[in-house]
Amino acid sequence: xxxxxxxxxxxxxxxxxxxxxxxxxxxxxxxxxxxxxxxxxxxxxxxxxxxxxxxxxxxxxxxxxxxxxxxxxxxxxxxxxxxxxxxxxxxxxxxxxxxxxxxxxxxxxxxxxxxxxxxxxxxxxxxxxxxxxxxxxxxxxxxxxxxxxxxxxxxxxxxxxxxxxxxxxxxxxxxxxxxxxxxxxxxxxxxxxxxxxxxxxxxxxxxxxxxxxxxxxxxxxxxxxxxxxxxxxxxxxxxxxx
Length: 242
What we know:
Number of helices: 2
């Protein structure tokens, strides 16, 4: 299902309740067809990966957790309804684990510490749970927010994924691996900035950035179209049963 139709169907099914009072995760075998901001792997680009994890029993020299986030510039104002990340792989302890999506307004896209999400303004923290079953054949994970976030054109923002419960009961990493693309291959200007929160220390690497797609909340016409489609499907089904 396209992200815009996913938003609309969620609103239709739960117009006045908190039945979906968490971030909704949908897996897909293919990349989104369109998005307000797209950062794909271009032809001939260099592909890598970065990980998020939460170790239950870290070694003394290891960090207990790592959050993975991506900063980017918004050219024109819009309201973010979801973000899609491409995932390379996941550990056995990852499915069904709780997470948060944190959205920050950041001060810039260079590697200066003052531009890290930790030095920015936290706009919202939203929680969810990964599906109990994940599939490497469906590497595109769309996280639909409970509360859409308004972005202002010309400003920089970061979206950060964090586990809130252990993904490993041992010293093993227990990671969720996000696909990255070489910085020189970025289709965005200025180039986005990947940040990792390692045990409270924000670090960044300019060599590669996550593959991601930021989705705007659909226009009212999309929701109206979805309502019409559902009504038509219901009428057809009723006629067939009659």
